Amino acid sequence: MRKAITAAARIAAAGASGLAFVAVIGSGTAQAAPQDCVVERNLFGASAVCQPDGGTNYVLRVDCFGLHATGPFPLYGVGPYSQLSYPFTPSGERITTACTGVGPGVVALATNAYVEIYRG
């Protein structure tokens, strides 16, 4: 019994350490692929600001990892997935996308974020 409790405590500590590592690595500012765009990522999502460019459309893509809805409730999955903003034309306004908008009770972390040119 004592070995099982010790093992469970070690697994919980390793999981908490891993989340702390993702929190430190996962936040910050990065330059996006299109010029004149700045992406600011946090633990659960990202936002982007792009300067006006005369009409090209963009999307903010946030790569997430965690619990997410895979179909109608109560179907859930655990693993990587992507969240997209609606296409936007840069105007200097901030656009935001989060990993938390894909079902009730979702627990997911942002692992990457970048701006893509939208061709649709």
TrEMBL record:
Keywords: Signal. It comes from the Bacteria. Residues 1-32 form the signal peptide. This is Secreted protein. It comes from Nocardia iowensis.
